[in-house]
């Protein structure tokens, strides 16, 4: 998993993951006072180097110094003997999004050591809503969690988070699927030139608001209706900012190899880093493709394409039930999809 590009887009992250030269500078600047001293732990600093014994001084919610025998006054000392101290983990593919407003403590994440989550995944980003999506989201969160949704766009989302902060840092991509839904709708057709210009403009707006990349969900509606040319156009704005394109690829089983190659080609043509979500070969008949795909990814790296992938640590598949139906059945949105399900002429 390539965290470097995602680290650049997170804010307020207190991390020990510094190169050794920077760590030595911090050691030489121990503060006269600190709020908290973490003492006695074995430190893994995230650099890949060997663990080391050190104390960590915290001041104002930030790491003030790392080193042995920090002499400070008035600090609360927390004894971590026998424990490991490490930077918070970054969940680079999260669907927390609005849930953080309903459950700001986020204990299910912080108790695992996760301190930063990257949301706006699989082509869907909070606030990039159609009017219908906005109304349904408002109704759901009001009735289920007594949470008022009173914003639109990523700017509104980030502003709301700043007013109701949670226990974890949150960074968000802007979803290419959300942008397509807002401009084109849920129909299976190519975007017109004017629609594409509007979509690219929305991508620029999202990036200016603070989005840390563009995501696509090519197994979902309407993201799956985008052709490669559209994806390149929507990801080209990332190049100047050196931000990544994260793609829930178009297929994870019988057409896995073609889906991987499509993601790589988008990154190559747009000139941006690629994050493949997720790396798996679904179905026993496709297991042999795992090694082939790894070879393709290594060859792409050798060809100077900045590509990484994520892999979740369980043998399962988590998605909506509608995703079990082919794209043509879902063409036109949820109402049309439900009508097709009731059409006896389409029964298997």
Computed structural class: alpha/beta
State the CATH architecture of the largest domain. Answer: Alpha-Beta Barrel
**CATH domain topology of the largest domain:** TIM Barrel
The tally of helices reads 13
Q: How many E-type strands?
A: 15
Question: How many angstroms separate the termini?
Answer: 41 Å
Q: What string, H for helix and E for strand, traces the elements in order?
A: HHEEEEEEEEHHEHHEEHHEHEHEHEHH
Q: Major β-sheet, in short?
A: 5 strands, parallel
Proportion in helices: 25-40%
Q: Overall pLDDT, averaged?
A: 89
Poorly predicted runs:
1-26
* Structural Rg: 23 Å
Please state the oligomeric state of the protein chains shown: single chain
InterPro entries: Amidohydro_3, Metal-dep_hydrolase_composite, Metal_Hydrolase, Metallo-dep_Hydrolases_sf
Organism: marine metagenome
Protein name: Amidohydrolase 3 domain-containing protein
Domain Amidohydrolase: 76-138
